[in-house]
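Reminder to self: tokens first, then the designed residues, so the page reads top to bottom the way the pipeline ran.
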């Protein structure tokens, strides 16, 4: 056996650089790194040595780098991913929130946090967590519940098994999620004689598991018996490359479609069978069909509460769920008729077996009524009132072309965008709403731009999310990956303030002006974004915003536009109840009133049914 002598870190990066997807391009776009003790000597030397064969980028915050990596994978439909390496201790734990985000959203990312010395000679090292009863614990154990595969590399040759396991997880459609290889710092620097074959190019073909034949029969029988079926398109439709297969299936059988947050843009917004978004932040058209459907065909969706209206949306007494999902875990949820398989293949197979089954015609007024409602709330306002989020969305929408990608994650905007954004092309809508993590937006936008350099990337972000994490805006400038960021400043956590009041609470500790303070908050977002190298300007009206968007589109580097907005309004049209537990006893009459309404609403919930 021919061998090559390399350190464990050199072997890791060489191996990773040789992994390809079925398109013959490297699976890994490269590696984000913030060095410290625990990775600068080992991983740092290795990454420097491999150079452009496995490019390294420097970020400003480990969580931000990880968000960029995760967004890159999502915008690549999981066909490509990135690695993120950190020091031990805070550098590593800074990444745990991002690991949870990737875990919830089933997105591939490889985390390589440094770890304590395997030989324990210098224990306890700087930043080492000491467990009094367990010598094997380190800070990196925090990754275990939020990794699909976790390993601690304590001997160099463990990489011979750990790395293929990591790749198997990252490229498996059902198991896909974050992998953490906690890399002991002394081991990174250790040399070993590696078989040369370990570094052969390896191609990971996209797996398309086929459904069991009995499951297919059950699905076909359920659809044939359905009087009003409806499809819910989830993120899995994108990841399976099944957008065309979905449209073909829907049209052939005349079955209307509603889209989840992750599924949105699976079908063009103006397709007559795309009835819009579904659920708590859904369109009245899609929700009306969902309420009366006797068969919900869930395709590639986790069926989270925003999709199901906390399991109160589907009201037909005899309704069944038919769940097509590559993951058995998801397909089996809520007593569904489970079909475990790839969305693209399974839709085609079921379609072939269904013959000329067609669902009844849908009342076209449902959709036209909804679009009229969208156009009304997104129209340019007259008068001088502070604009609403919906009006800002309208202005941004009018300013971009069909290729644009809108990016968002938390606050009031995801709900408004879900309802109102008209997504024309697949992946044109990138809203992280599995973890809805404040601070994902700008870093995520950077990752999207790295995956889709030819498409305009517009990040829409609230003042709260911007303040939580914005530093990768500087990275976008430094790396020349232009993003347009629209900052909606409503002076606080507007959506939580609204939720607080809707559950009977006093407006408290959400808006900056009513939060306890000595000096009133006066954050200059324009100056802040400008200080990071972005071109920044503030606008004072919707028409000024549209003019600024034009300048932003022509600019050659990242651009930030700040606009003051009204924290109180949100779009009334559409939507559905969401289960948020209201206190059972309170001295506040408004809470007691909200509790009464809550108990009435709970009667609509059908858990487990
Ligand atoms: C990391 C994180 N912390 C807390 C929350 C809970 N949360 C959701 S939205 C929100 C407020 C967001 O404020 P902003 O970005 O200004 O948007 P707005 O609600 O004003 O539209 C909070 C605190 C969260 N989703 N993520
Ligand atoms: Mg806000």
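Designed residues (609 positions):
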């Amino acid at each position: 056996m021919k061998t090559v002598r390399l350190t464990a870190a050199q072997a890791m990066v060489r191996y990773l650089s040789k992994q390809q997807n079925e398109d013959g391009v490297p699976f890994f776009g490269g590696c984000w790194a913030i060095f410290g003790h625990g990775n600068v000597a080992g991983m740092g030397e290795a990454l420097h040595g491999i150079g452009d064969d496995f490019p390294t980028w420097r970020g400003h915050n480990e969580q931000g780098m990880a968000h960029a990596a995760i967004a890159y994978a999502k915008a690549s439909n999981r066909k490509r991913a990135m690695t993120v390496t950190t020091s031990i201790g805070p550098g590593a734990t800074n990444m745990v929130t991002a690991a949870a985000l990737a875990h919830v959203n089933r997105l591939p990312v490889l985390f390589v946090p440094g770890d304590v010395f395997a030989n324990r000679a210098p224990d306890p090292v700087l930043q080492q967590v000491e467990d009094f009863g367990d010598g094997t614990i380190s800070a990196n154990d925090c990754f275990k519940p939020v990794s699909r595969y976790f390993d601690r590399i304590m001997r160099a040759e463990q990489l011979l098994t750990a790395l293929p396991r990591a790749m198997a997880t990252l490229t498996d459609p059902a198991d896909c999620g974050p992998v953490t290889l906690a890399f002991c710092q002394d081991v990174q620097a250790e040399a070993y004689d590696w078989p040369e074959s370990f570094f052969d190019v390896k191609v990971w073909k996209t797996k398309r598991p086929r459904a069991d034949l009995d499951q297919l029969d059950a699905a076909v029988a359920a659809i044939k018996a359905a009087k009003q079926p409806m499809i819910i398109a989830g993120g899995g439709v994108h990841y399976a490359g099944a957008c065309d297969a979905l449209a073909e299936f829907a049209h052939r059988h005349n079955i209307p479609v509603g889209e989840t947050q992750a599924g949105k843009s699976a079908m063009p917004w103006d397709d007559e069978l795309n009835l819009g978004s579904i659920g708590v932040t859904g369109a009245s058209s899609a929700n009306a069909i969902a309420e009366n459907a006797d068969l919900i065909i869930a395709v590639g969706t986790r069926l989270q509460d925003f999709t199901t209206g906390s399991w109160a949306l589907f009201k037909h007494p005899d309704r069944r769920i038919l769940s097509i999902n590559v993951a058995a875990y998801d397909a089996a949820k809520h007593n569904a008729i489970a079909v475990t398989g790839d969305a693209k293949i399974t839709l085609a197979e079921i379609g072939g077996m269904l013959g000329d089954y067609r669902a009844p015609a849908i009342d076209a007024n449902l959709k036209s009524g909804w679009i009229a409602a969208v156009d009304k709330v997104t129209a340019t306002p007259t008068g001088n009132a502070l604009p609403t989020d919906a009006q800002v969305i309208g202005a941004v929408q009018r300013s971009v072309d069909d290729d644009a990608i809108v990016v968002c994650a938390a606050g009031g905007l995801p709900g408004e965008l879900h309802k109102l954004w008209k997504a024309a092309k697949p992946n044109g809508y990138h809203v992280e709403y599995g973890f809805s993590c404040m601070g994902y937006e700008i870093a995520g936008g950077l990752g999207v731009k790295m995956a889709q350099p030819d498409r305009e990337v517009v990040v829409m972000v609230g003042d709260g999310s911007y303040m939580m994490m914005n530093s990768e805006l500087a990275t976008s400038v430094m790396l020349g990956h232009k993003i347009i960021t629209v900052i909606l400043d409503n002076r606080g956590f507007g959506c939580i303030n609204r939720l607080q009041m809707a559950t009977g609470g006093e407006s408290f500790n959400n808006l900056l002006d009513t939060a306890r303070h000595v000096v009133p908050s006066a954050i200059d977002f324009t100056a802040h974004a400008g200080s990071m190298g972005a071109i920044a300007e503030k606008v004072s009206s919707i028409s000024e915003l549209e003019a600024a968007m034009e300048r932003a589109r022509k600019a050659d580097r990242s651009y930030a536009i700040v606009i003051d907005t009204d924290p109180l309004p949100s779009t009334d049209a559409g939507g559905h109840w969401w289960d948020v537990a209201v206190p059972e006893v309170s001295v506040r009459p408004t809470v007691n009133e909200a509790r009464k309404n809550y108990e009435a609403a709970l009667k609509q919930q059908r858990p487990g049914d």
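The first strand starts at residue 3 and ends at 7.
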